[in-house]
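User: Reviewer 2 asked us to show a designed sequence for the structure in our supplementary figure. I'm pasting the structure tokens here. Could you produce the per-position amino acids so we can include them in the response letter?
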């Protein structure tokens, strides 16, 4: 299991994995209340590399994407 986190401030988003920051951005910062959406979306030519034009195969064949979530916690200062 891993611990993932996002610190959302008025100026930036900071992304953490197992307590270590791995990315931050100051672009597209929402100024509106939002809700949590857990997803396994992957952007092509980003941190996950290049997605093949034919995709990763049909579910149940060569690809079996799974995301397990043990718990989610949200707090506001």
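Assistant: Here is a per-position design you can include in the supplement:
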């Amino acid at each position: 299991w891993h611990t993932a986190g996002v610190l959302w401030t008025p100026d930036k988003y900071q992304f953490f994995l197992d307590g270590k920051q791995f990315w931050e951005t100051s672009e597209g910062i929402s100024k509106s209340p939002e809700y949590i959406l857990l997803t396994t979306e992957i952007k092509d030519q980003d941190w996950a590399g290049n997605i093949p034009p034919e995709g990763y195969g049909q579910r149940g064949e060569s690809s079996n994407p799974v995301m397990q979530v043990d718990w989610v916690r949200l707090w506001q200062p």
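For the response letter, you might also mention the following. The first strand starts at residue 4 and ends at 8. The chain is about 0% helix and 20% strand.
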